[in-house]
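Two records follow; treat each independently.
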Amino acid sequence: MHADDFGFGTQIRKSPYFDATVRWGAQGFSVYNHMYIPRDFGDPEQNFWNLVNEAILCDVAVERQVEITGPDAARFVQMMTPRDLSKMAVGQCKYILITNAEGGILNDPILLRLAENHFWISLADSDILLWAQGLAVHSGMDVQICEPDVSPLQLQGPKSGEIMQALFGDSIMDLKYYWFREMDLDGIPLIVSRTGWSSELGYEIYLRDSAHGDALWERIMATGMDYGLKPGHTSSIRRIEGGMLSYHADADIHTNPFELGMDRLVSLDMEAEFIGKAALRRIRDEGVTRKQIGLIIDCEPLKGPNTTFWAVQKDGETVGKVTSAVYSPRLGQTIALAMVSADMAHLGLALDVLTPSGPTGATVVERPFYDPKKQLAVA
């Protein structure tokens, strides 16, 4: 299939790796942050095994960066998130939530601090560039906000460390989890971080000049071949096993951090003001009416992830919805993230799920479903 065979016109952007991914077997794409993202390299189960046994390279240029610079950049970024950034060092990454005035989640990105007053917000799927520029207008703060020419790749899986060592030399091996450094490869300017959306050992490679997209993809694949590297796509199976959020599925503007059990990302006692502080304080004090849970669903293996929200019921009454479900070949079970009434969020509780093939039983369980302490990614 030729790269020109995909498309809905020019309003949906193509990444710098688009042609390379088609050459390497991408058969289907979805749209994320107004860009194409490869979602199909054949068998998603094989993609999962490639990820957990060796390594995969994924085009995630859709993780657009919002760059914030200027004398007030640090104060402005803190205003955007309830997570305390006061001890964040240059060279460090943090997983943050961006909240609105009602405490609703607008995005759950990775924040990178490139310099004292230079930040990138590496986005999930929503228009935070516009939100940030809008906030800046009446903030009285001296900041510049733009989308730089930056396009990440994810190299994920247990062999990713060895591949990175082969690409960059031994010095890369002391890069700690959730830290990054500026590097180059054959003169291609990069930032390399120990982060990713897989719950496995992994790296993100941020290309800082889109003209080199093809060369960078080919260079990494050529080096990785000896280690079993395959082209791939972010794995729904692995991210649900890891209890990782997919924005618009497991969380949206009407979801607050406490419903997700993400209290650790909300620092209500810090002096700094941030958007949503009063609302989040009220939600904390009053308690939540819904909670995210993990479910094991008693059904035949799913052919792919759910494409609609499935009702969750107790004694014939709807008490919530399944937001993400998938069959895990490793666990031999259909696993799901769901949002349910807080009084249903008890481990071991039996519930019913209305799947497309009919109602079926389900049990509330701990999440993440696999490697709950995230030792694979941190090791």
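The next record belongs to a different protein.
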Amino acid sequence: MAYLKLKDINKIYPNGFHAVHDFNLEIEKGEFVVFVGPSGCGKSTTLRMIAGLENISKGEFYINDVLANDKGPRDRQVAMVFQSYALYPHLSVYDNLAFGLTLQGVDEDVIEERVYATAKILGLTEYLQRKPRALSGGQRQRVAVGRAIIRKVGIFLMDEPLSNLDAKQRVTMRSEITQIHRETNATTIYVTHDQTEAMTMADRIVVMKEGYIQQVGTPYELYFNPVNMFVAGFIGEPPMNFLRGTVNNGILQIAEDGENVDAQLDLAPILDKELIDQYNGKKMVLGFRPESIVLGEQENCSAIACQVELTELLGDNTNVYVNIGNSRSVLKVDPHDTPAMDSELTFYIPNKSIYLFDSETEDVIPTIK
């Protein structure tokens, strides 16, 4: 296990492109941390700087309190799993797993013991004599993971290792990687653009956008306490809905693209009076998650009228796509309560489930929960 500290890390390429800005993070021994964000946000670049595959332009990187900026990948004692399996096609699964240990001059008896132990963890024992071309995508990815864990290093780095698998294989491999982490207890950094992977696997998640950290926290913290609209809209499936409006005398009047919508929100039960006065006459964004709505009128709820555009039956719930003025939102409802397409619908948002954001900064506005 290893303790990692990244202090004011920056990556600036020779052409002047600033890929990572002032990245600060401490990762505890044995922690599973996931970097998540859209393509080009700097998450893989940061991982490669940790691995020693990219130079750090500015800042300090420590492994167990030892400065590691100038250490090569081998000296950092890291094992990396890439998006591509990077297996040797002419070698058997056994030889692929053993390759790194053979290069290190490890005794053959020790290699055999560790190969079989690793294969047992990954369910590869019956495939040890096969070549990679005779394996499925999920089995190849397990071999790639096995080549990393067999070295018994303190740091595992994984760069979108499941992106080449189909949906069913990704679900299986997610649980397998999580179980491997529990067994090895190695400090693990995992990069993905898939927020479902982040939510289901991570001890903590680092959300990135355009080279900047947006928020660091547990899956629970990011889901229920996002710091801004980007995090709120990125974490969750389907993502959070947003409606824009203007505050007038303590009432948020919803208006999308200049069109007034049949919805208004009394801010008194949700915001402190000082904040209500501060935002009077200013624009604000109402956020709510698709699963937080109710269809029947209840107390302490805010009503919004909409037009049903499309419904998607998913088995345990139905996604209902609705038009609210010129804005499109999605609601999650019980399949038995699925409304008819093109019908008028009024739904209700519990006040405790409402999020408010500053329209200019897009930062969250603290509400009364």
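Discussion point: The radius of gyration is 25 Å. How would you locate this feature using only the token line?
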